[in-house]
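User: I'm putting together a teaching handout on how multi-component assemblies are represented. Below are the sequence lines for each component of a complex, exactly as they appear in our records. Could you produce the 3D structure of the whole assembly as structure tokens, so the students can see both representations side by side? Please keep the chain order the same as the input.
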Amino acid sequence: MEEQIKVTAEEPKKLNFLEEIIEKDLKEGKIDSVMTRFPPEPNGYLHLGHAKSICLNFGLAQKYGGKTNLRYDDTNPTKEDTEYVDSIKEDINWLGFQWDKELYASDYFDQLYEWAEELIKRGLAYVDDQTQEEIRLGRGTVDKPGVNSPYRDRTPEENLRLFREMKAGKYAEGEKVLRAKIDMAHPNMMFRDPLLYRIKFAHHHRTGDKWCIYPMYDYTHGQCDSIEHITHSICTLEFDVHRPLYDWFIETLGIYPSHQYEFARLNLTYTLMSKRKLLELVQKGLVAGWDDPRMPTLCGVRRRGYTPEALRMFCEKIGVSKRDQLMDIQLLEWCVRQDLNARSNRYMVVQDPLKVTITNYPEGQVEWFDCPLNPADPEGASRKVPFTRELYIDRADFMEDAPKKFFRLKPEGEVRLKYTYIIKCEEVVKDAEGNVIELKCTYDPSTRPGAEGPWRSVKGTIHWVSCEHAAEIELRNYDRLFTQANMNDIPEDKDYKDFLNPDSLIFGTGYAEPALLEDASGIAVQFERTGYYFKDPDSTPEKAVFNKTTALKDSYKPE
Ligand code: ATP
Ligand code: MG
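Assistant: Of course. Below is the structure of the complete assembly, with chains in the same order as your input.
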């Protein structure tokens, strides 16, 4: 990882398009400082796509000495909840960022309402009695201009009265809406008298029952940005058609000129980034919850053992683009390994045990070997690993009819037990069915690391644990949630749930060296020669549970 950082620090990095815009705005004196915001809707847990937006918004402000507000876009009371509000804050902090102000679109409901009255008085908004369907049909299509609503020419006085009555709760949901009066033939459909307010008798997580009319996204977002003097309002590409309307409200109201910029949303192979679909997985019990370690949510990957450092590295690597792309999840896994390889503690855990008896090792003797917690830091802390006469090795590290290139244990063969002695396989013990149940070996005391005399080396080194000291742990070996790489492109006659990977969770048992249970690093650990694992909160004093974070190695190399 050291090396990784050095390389990127020395190469002068090309500015991304947002940095170019910001540097130009600062240079031309258009702005004094940078103000960004992260605007989640509190209707679900944050996912990896949001991490990209967070790293971008907070990262840009940090780079240019500015600030970032956390603003909840809470204009849709029926789907929102304080559970989500709290989780979002936790996730942003975990990623390593701190917002300037915690704000809510609902903080501005009074101001937004006042501006709506202003638009009505200026003849720029009207109350429409048409049904949702009539409004939809009246909008026309891209090739066909819309038609004016029969209610479009109500006087400002009448509109003001009706709008106030809407607010007072006189009308039922769907009976009336407030629309901007712009142009029903406008080439940009967004301008065909967009909805500003709809009636909703719903309890709001912050404003309670104060309101029964709620502002629409387009009428809300730009004005909120403007109130907070957001200089660069960054959102995903699908909002580019909204930008002219964003500007229209700000210009028409003559308020602080925030500007919107769009970047490509993050899509990742073998997973999904839609809160709606993730919610469905949770509600249908197809995953264990929002924080299921297979989920692309931040709480999910956190439980899996991904680190904030790895996520920030990933966001840095993918950069920002103006074109939608599908990113390879292997790049994210690569970043996780980069970070964990540099920092994680090592332990030996056997998953499929085969008993080894060292026949020339004294019964009852225990030698405690001092082993580095991280070989990259040999001077650093160590752990004590007990060696005894009876050990477990992984079954896959023994082969009876081994090919020439098999450098682990085989009959008559030698191998080094990691950190300790070279042993030789003298006898293979089998049960009545012919299954190998035990290996009788001898050890060579002169091969003890640090012993006098010449160092004898063998080709293979394997991990092991002392039977007597091994702690039984539960393993949850996770794999990808879906079987198809591009989950945004599934056949029409199929549902995304048809592609759930049936092998995304395989339970296992591990036999761990005792020091594992004392680990206090707080991050994922490396099970030597196997993979990275992170302790799960389901662990009890009787049984520790470890989630597989990622495999140890992969042939994948980032470009
Ligand atoms: P979803 O479609 O999953 O519901 P959303 O865009 O509705 O996502 P919001 O809570 O409104 O979710 O998003 C907050 C911010 O995060 C927005 O600025 C949005 O553009 C950004 N964001 C959401 N998904 C992604 C993504 N996949 N990649 C990058 N940014 C994203
Ligand atoms: Mg949204």
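A couple of points students might notice: DSSP finds 13 helices and 27 strands in the chain. Residues 48-63 form the longest helix (16 residues).
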